[in-house]
């Protein structure tokens, strides 16, 4: 349990120092902020979520290394880290796969000046992501088949109508329980005021 917090902080510290090129103190502070953010603290008892939180900075580091070096070794590492994120559990599949797809696209657009180069690099990196996810299916599919789950969709949605509006979603986003209809549920995602201020400052301040 406590080891995962250390690994999570170490992974983010490495990403900040080696790839974002920040100095040690800001990297350490950001690593601690990431590790003890509200989302991770509230869901720390879930091994799958904590494993995904550990692998996220590792995947970002591998993607950045490939886009900077463009070697077969860095491509293989990107494949292996994608595989590692995909096998962390259900959350790694549901959240990790879309994250890898869109984050890799964002990184390519940010690094390359021409649209053609960005899309070409993204498609190559996407091949590594697909390879890693395909390798993870060797573990995921037998596990799912072994569960012998039988779901009656009609029965699942019977008497399950909930009045949950867009306003409830927006309000819950700032109260650490967005994405859930229950008052005391674990938050699915959270946008803090610090994030909003940072985004506005980035957009308005030309020196950033």
Structure description:
This protein is about 75% helix and about 0% strand. The model is unreliable at about 175-180 (pLDDT under 50). It has helices spanning about 1-20, 25-35, 40, 45-70, 70-85, 90-110, 115-145, 155, 165-175, 195-205. Helix 1 (about 1-20) packs antiparallel against helix 2 (about 25-35), helix 1 runs parallel beside helix 4 (about 45-70) and helix 5 packs parallel to helix 7.
Chain-wise SSE layout:
Elements: H1 2-18, H2 24-35, H3 38-42, H4 47-69, H5 72-86, H6 90-111, H7 115-147, H8 153-156, H9 166-173, H10 193-204
Descriptors for this entry?
globular, 10 helices, mainly alpha
Percent of residues in helical segments?
over 70%
Structural class category: mainly alpha
Separation of termini?
37 Å
Q: What's the β-strand tally?
A: 0
Largest sheet: none
Runs in which pLDDT lies below 50 for 5 or more consecutive residues are 176-181
The amount of beta strand, in percent, is: under 5%
Could you provide a short overview of the structure?
The chain has 208 residues and is an all-alpha fold.
């Amino acid at each position: 349990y406590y080891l995962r917090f250390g690994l999570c902080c170490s992974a983010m510290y490495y990403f900040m120092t080696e790839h974002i090129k920040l100095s040690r103190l800001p990297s350490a502070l950001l690593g601690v902020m990431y590790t003890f953010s509200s989302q991770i603290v509230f869901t720390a008892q879930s091994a799958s979520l904590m494993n995904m939180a550990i692998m996220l900075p590792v995947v970002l580091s591998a993607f950045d290394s490939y886009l900077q070096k463009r070697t077969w070794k860095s491509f293989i590492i990107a494949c292996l880290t994608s595989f590692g994120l995909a096998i962390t559990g259900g959350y790694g599949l549901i959240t990790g796969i879309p994250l890898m797809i869109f984050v890799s696209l964002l990184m390519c657009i940010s690094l390359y000046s021409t649209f053609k180069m960005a899309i070409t690099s993204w498609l190559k990196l996407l091949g590594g992501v697909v390879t890693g996810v395909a390798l993870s299916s060797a573990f995921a599919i037998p596990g799912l088949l072994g569960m012998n789950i039988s779901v009656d969709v009609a029965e699942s949605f019977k008497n399950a109508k909930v009045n949950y509006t867009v306003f409830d979603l927006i309000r819950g986003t700032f109260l650490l329980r967005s994405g859930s209809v229950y008052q005391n549920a674990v938050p699915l995602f959270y946008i803090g005021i610090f994030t909003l201020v940072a985004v506005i400052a980035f957009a308005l301040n030309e020196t950033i």
